[in-house]
Amino acid sequence: MSALLEMRAITKEFPGVKALDQVSLSVDEGEILALVGENGAGKSTLMKVLSGVYPTGSYDGEIIYDGALAQFSGIADSEAKGIIIIHQELALVPLLSIAENIFLGNEQAKGGVINWRETEQRTVELLRKVGLSEPPGTLIDKIGVGKQQLVEIAKALAKDVRLLILDEPTAALSEADSQALLDLMLELKAQGVTQIIISHKLNEVRQVADKITVIRDGTSVSAMDARTETITEDKIVRDMVGRDMAARYPARDRRAGEKILDVKNWNVFHPLHADRQVIHDVNLTVNAGEVVGIAGLMGAGRTELAMSLFGQSYGQKISGDVLMHGQSVDVSTVSKAVASGLAYVTEDRKELGLILDETIQRNITLSNLPEVANGQILQETKETRVAESYRDALNIRTPGVFQRVVNLSGGNQQKVVLSKWLFAKPELLILDEPTRGIDVGAKFEIYGIINDLSAQGKGVLMISSEMPELLGMCDRIYVMNEGAFVGELTAEEASQEAIMSLIVTD
Amino acid sequence: MTTTTENSPNEQKAGIGEYLVRHLREYGLLFALIAIMAFFQIATNGTLLKPVNVTNLLLQNSYIVIMALGMLIVIVAGHIDLSVGSVMGFVGALAAVMIVELDQPTWITIATCIAAGALIGAAQGYWVAYWGIPSFIVTLAGMLVFRGASLWLLEGQSLGPFPREFQMMANGFVPDIFPAGFGESVAKLLGERRVNMLALVTGVSAACAIFWLELKKRAQNRVYGMDTEPTAFFWARVGIISFALVFILFKLSTFRGLPNVLITMGVLTILYAFFTERTVTGRRIYALGGNIKAAKLSGVKTARLTFLAFVNMGVLAAIAGMVFAARLNSATPKAGFALELDVIAAVFIGGASMSGGVGKIVGAVVGAFLMGVLNNGMSILGIGIDYQQMIKGLVLLAAVIFDVYNKQKS
C-alpha cells in the first residue's frame, strides 16, 4: 500500500506563537489514522492546513496527496480532491431535510433546477450505506445528534470522499451511538475510504485505528502502528501529556459526613407536552464530603433532573420535596436554589455556562455579584481580587483575568465555569458532564478540584456519560433509565457491567 | 503589560501602533467627531462653533441623547425599541392637552407624562419579557399605535403654546450664581462682551473631574497589570476631552450660559454611565444580552430585567417628548416622526452590538452628537434634505462595517 497522504515537516506560525513545528504524518490508502493530543496541541491547526483553510504559502513544509504536491488555496480545492472534514460542531441546517442537507452545495440539479427524485433516490442509497433508516424528508431538527453525525458522513460520501477526517466525532454521542459510529468507520475502511479520526477517547482510538500519531505542543511526538506493536492507553497518555500519569483519577479520602441534600418523590413533566412525564418519583441523597454519580444513557433524563432541581429551569408540573440539611427549601427559581446552597455546572458550557464575549473576571463573579458589591455599587478592585484568587486556585491558564473567555481552551473555560459556581459558595454542586470535550491533563485537574470540594465537606452530584470516570470518582452511583432511578451502587459494587445490566434489565 | 522606560524609542512606537490598532474603535469615534467638527468649522467659515450655534446644537440634540441612553440599555439587553419616536410624540401631545385644554398645573402634567411613559414601556416590555414576543414586532406595533394615538389626542391639529415654566425645560438657562462684577472682569480679561461664570466654572470643574477620575483609573489598571494606555495617548485623549469640554462651555458662557436641558442631559448621562458600568443591575443587563441562557442559569432574573429596560425606555421617551414639545412650544401630530431611527443609529454608531451585550453610554452620547453635528453642519451649508439623508445613512453603514471589520481582524 502506498501513502495517500503525507504531510512533511509542517510548520505554521501565528504572530507570536509557533502553532505547529515540523509536524509530520502519513496515512496509507484504506487506513485509519488516529490523531491524538491535548486541546491546543495543534491538531485542528494541522487539519486546517490540510484542508486549505490556511492556504499554501501561509505555512512551511509539504503536503503530498495522491502522489503529487498539493497546493490548496481553500476548502473548495481540497474537497474537489476528495478530502472532507466533519467538524465537532456539526454543519447541518436544522430546518432543512436530511436530503437537502446531504446535497447542500452539491445539489443534484440541471441548469439550476433541482431534480428532487434523483436527490431522494441517492439519499436513500447513502443513508443505507451509513446504516440510517430515516425517510430522506425528515428535518434534521427531528433526529438526535447520533443520527445527525451519520448524516454528515453520508454528506461526505455524496462528494466521493477519499480521505475522511472526523474531528471528535463521538464527543456528543451516547455509548451506543458511539459504537455504531465506530463500526461504520470500520465498514467504510473495508470499502477503501481512508480516514483520520481526532479523539480524546483512547478506548475508541484503540478500537479503530491502524496507526496513531500523538501531537504535543505543536510537534509530533510519536507515531505508533497498532498492527505491529501493542499500544496501551498508558503509553498514549504518557506521550500526550509528556509525563507519567500514575493514576487517571487522583486519590481521595472517602469519608461521608451528615446528609446535605435530600430529594423526595421528584416528578417532572415535559415543558411542552404536559402529559409526558420525564422524571418519575426520584429519591436521592448526597452527604457531606461525598461524590455521588448519576449514570445512564443519553436521554435517560439526567440533565432534565438536574435542571428541574436547579430553579425549575426545565419542565413543568414539578412536584416533590427538596431538603438541605434536613430543612425543606424552596428551589423554584435559580436565585432561590442558589440561596439554598445549590450550584449547577451545565453540560453545555458555551451555550449555557459562559458569556463568551465577556472577560474571565465578569464570568466568575456573575453568580454572586452582591458579594463584590457595596449595595448596588460594584467594587472593581475586590472583583479583580476574587477573580485572580480563583485563577490561581484552579490554575486557569491565562495572561490575565481581563481576557475574554472565548479565547480560552475548553479545559480552562470549564475551570472558569467551576470558579463561577465555587464563588457562589454552594453546599452542593451538581456537575453535568464536567469533563466533556477537554483533554486528559485538564480532566485530571478537574478531578483534583472535585476532590478538594469533597475534602471541604461539600456534596457533589456528578452526571457523566463516561462510565470509567464515574467509577473512578464516585462513592455511590445512581443508575438512571427512562426518567427513573433503577438502582444504586456503592463504589465497591459498581462496575461497567453492573451499571449496564441495571439499565438493560429495567 | 506595561510600557517600560527601558524600551528603545522604536519598540515603544510599535507598542503604540499596536495599541492604537486594538483600540481603534474607541479612538475612532472620538477622532471622527473631532474631524467632522473641524471640517464643518472650516466649511461653514466658523459658524459651527459660534456660541449661538453651539447652544442650538445642544438643544436640538438633547432629546435624541436622552432617548439614546435608554436605547443603549435596550440594545445591550438584546432588544430594540422602534416605538420611541411615536411615544415621544404621544407624550408631547398628552402634555399639550393637559396644560392647554385641561388647564392642569405644570408639575402635575410632568408627573403624569412620566407615569404615562413608564406605563407604555411596561405595556410593551410585558409582551417582550414575559411572553417572549420579539421586541421588533411588539414595538413596531407600538410605533403605529402611539402615532395614531397622538393624532387622535390632538385631533390632527397642533396644540400650544405652553406656559413659560413648561417652556423653561427646553429653552431656559441656569442663572449665573456668581456676582455680576466677577463675570464682567473675566469678560474684560478674555476680551469677550460677557461671560457666564457658572458655565465657565462648570466646564473647568468637569475637566478637572475627568482628569482625576482617569488618573485614578489608570493607577488602578497599573496595579492589576491591565493593558494600560501608552502615556502619550492617555494625555492626548484626556487633554482633548477636557479641552473640548472647557471650550464648549466657554462658548456657552459667552452666549446665554448653561441651558437647563444641558444639565438634565449631563446628569442623566453620568447617572446612566455609572449605572451601566458600576452597578450590579447594570452588569446583569450586559450578562443578559451576552448570553441570556447562561445569565438565567446564573440566577439573573432575565425576564424582569428585560421588562425594566423597556419601562426605563418609556420614561426617557416621555422626558424627551416633553423637552421636544417645550422647545417647539407646541405639540404636533408629526412630532418625533422617524426619530427612533436617529436614536438607534446613534447607539450603533457609538459601538453597540446588534446581538446585545456590548455597548457604552458614552459611545451612544458621542454617536448622537456625531449625527447632530452632521445634521447641523449640513443644514448651515444649505445641503438639501435629500443629500443629508443619504450621507447619514452611509455614515451609519460605515460605522457598523468598521465594527465588523475590527471584530474579524481580532
Automatic annotation (TrEMBL), chain A:
The record, for PROSITE patterns, names: ABC_TRANSPORTER_1, ABC_TRANSPORTER_2
Q: Which UniProt keywords apply?
A: ATP-binding, Cell membrane, Hydrolase, Membrane, Nucleotide-binding, Repeat, Sugar transport, Translocase, Transport
Q: Which Pfam families match?
A: ABC_tran (PF00005)
* Cellular-component GO terms for this entry: plasma membrane
Q: What is its main location?
A: membrane
Tagged with keyword Nucleotide-binding: yes
What Enzyme Commission number(s) apply to this enzyme?
A: 3.6.3.17
Task: Offer an example of a GO molecular function term for this protein.
Answer: ATP hydrolysis activity
Q: Write down the superkingdom of origin.
A: Bacteria
Q: How does it sit in the membrane?
A: Peripheral membrane protein
ABC transporter domain: from which residue to which, for each copy?
Answer: 5-242, 263-502
Kindly report, in one word, the top-level EC class recorded for this enzyme: hydrolase
Q: Which InterPro entries match?
A: AAA+_ATPase (IPR003593), ABC_carbohydrate_import_ATPase (IPR050107), ABC_transporter-like_ATP-bd (IPR003439), ABC_transporter-like_CS (IPR017871), L-arabinose_ABC_transporter (IPR053466), P-loop_NTPase (IPR027417)
Q: Any idea where this protein resides?
A: Cell membrane
Instruction: Fetch the SMART domains from UniProt.
Output: AAA (SM00382)
Tell me yes or no: is Membrane among this UniProt entry's keywords.
Answer: yes
- The protein, known as: Xylose import ATP-binding protein XylG
Gene name of the record: xylG_2
TrEMBL record, chain B:
- Keyword Transport assigned to the entry: answer is yes
InterPro entries reported for this sequence? ABC_transp_permease
User: What does the record give under GO molecular function?
Assistant: transmembrane transporter activity
Q: Where in the cell is it found?
A: Cell membrane
Q: Where are the transmembrane segments?
A: 27-45, 57-76, 82-100, 107-127, 133-154, 195-213, 233-250, 257-275, 305-325, 337-355, 361-385
| Predominant localisation class | membrane
State the UniProt keywords alphabetically: Cell inner membrane, Cell membrane, Membrane, Sugar transport, Transmembrane, Transmembrane helix, Transport
GO cellular component assignments: plasma membrane
Q: How does it sit in the membrane?
A: Multi-pass membrane protein
> What is the recorded function of this protein according to its Swiss-Prot or TrEMBL entry?
Part of the binding-protein-dependent transport system for D-xylose. Probably responsible for the translocation of the substrate across the membrane.
- Name under which the protein is recorded: Xylose transport system permease protein XylH
Give the organism, scientific name: Pelagimonas phthalicica
| Name of the coding gene | xylH_1
